[in-house]
Automatic annotation (TrEMBL):
Signal sequence annotation: none
InterPro entries according to UniProt: HDAC_classIV, HDACs, His_deacetylse_dom, His_deacetylse_dom_sf, Ureohydrolase_dom_sf
Domain Histone deacetylase, chain residue ranges per copy: 22-290
Record organism: Hymenobacter jejuensis
One Gene Ontology molecular-function label: histone deacetylase activity
Membership in a protein family: Belongs to the histone deacetylase family.
Any one GO biological process: epigenetic regulation of gene expression
Keyword Hydrolase set for record: yes
Any Pfam family the entry gives: Hist_deacetyl
Keyword set, alphabetical order: Hydrolase
Entry protein name: Histone deacetylase
Source organism superkingdom: Bacteria
Length: 301
């Protein structure tokens, strides 16, 4: 059964400059339902996790100041969001959704969060529209609560390096971080993942897919993970305003299908989070994200 985390507050309203990217959180589930890719029964509304689960990953002082609206102006600017109680509730719920997806993936093979992939959040600070690191928190949750999960692979294919995730797990051998991203894109100061594959501006479908196909099967053989987190950002598209790569929607679709088929073939439970997408046309963003769900529905049916 395909299990998808979604909550109305994923599309939490923000000031005018932020509203457009948020539309996908409303439009994507509507499109999937309209097409019959999923049914209402495939969705679940996540709950905020206990604070203790967030504090496995995040600094207690930072989390307290975040919840109480006590971030400095510099810290708030670094996140890209104006602080509000609703924003914190949204971020905490997204994190809870990824934890819940991890539990469901262990039972069903795959689970997807319509939000998530907040990979720029560090243990002690937020950056780049990311306040709390949902995949890092879910990975730590599994390591703490699931004896069957001893090794985790994070496959981050968003166009931006997962700098926060890399820093959080720098000294954690049970989590292997793999980031394939634009070399000259945000963040300008990169962290060191266990494996980084920086890409030149203008990288096309053929180059991107060849590199991924040469790398990921070998990585699975070497790391031998018990669980995979996949960040499937669609800001790799040529149409993306912030991406600088040159993938088509078809190339992005093949990327997702390749990752999910590998996980299915190797009986590896996988959680998928959506990550970024900033194309001029909202239809390009939603369609590319929808392809991820279509692939998961077909492969794990």
């Amino acid at each position: 059964m395909l299990s998808i985390a979604w909550a109305p507050l994923y599309a939490h309203p923000l000031p005018a400059g932020h509203r457009f990217p948020m539309l996908k959180y409303e439009l994507l589930p509507e499109q999937l339902l309209r097409e019959g890719v999923v049914a209402e029964s495939n969705f679940f509304v996540p709950s905020p996790p206990p604070a203790a689960e967030i504090l496995r990953t995040h600094d207690a002082g930072y989390f307290q100041r975040l919840c109480q609206g006590e971030l400095t102006r510099h810290e708030e600017r670094a996140t890209g969001f104006p602080w509000s109680e609703q924003l914190v509730e949204r971020e905490v719920t997204i994190l809870g959704g990824t934890i819940a997806c991890a539990e469901r993936a262990l039972r069903h093979g795959v689970s997807l969060n319509i939000a998530g992939g907040t990979h720029h959040a560090f243990a002690d600070r937020g950056e780049g529209f990311c306040l709390l690191n949902d995949q890092a928190a879910a990975a730590n949750y599994l390591l703490a609560h699931q004896p069957s999960v001893q090794k985790i692979l994070i496959v981050d294919l968003d166009v931006h390096q997962g700098n926060g995730t890399a820093a959080i797990f720098r000294h954690e051998p049970r989590v292997f971080t793999f980031s394939m991203h634009g070399a000259r894109n945000y963040p300008h100061r990169k962290e060191q993942s266990d494996l980084d594959l920086p890409l030149a501006d203008g990288t096309d479908d053929a180059t991107y897919l060849r590199l991924l196909r040469d790398t990921l099967p070998r990585l699975l053989d070497e790391v031998q993970p018990d669980f995979v987190f996949y960040l499937s950002g669609v800001d790799v598209l040529a149409t993306d305003k912030l991406g600088h790569l040159a993938l088509t929607r078809e190339g992005c679709r093949q990327r997702d299908r390749f990752v999910l088929e590998l996980c299915h073939q190797r009986a590896l439970p996988v959680v998928v989070c959506m990550g970024g997408g900033y194309s001029e046309r909202i239809a390009d963003i939603v369609e590319a994200h929808a392809n991820t769900f279509r692939a998961a529905a077909e492969i794990f049916s």
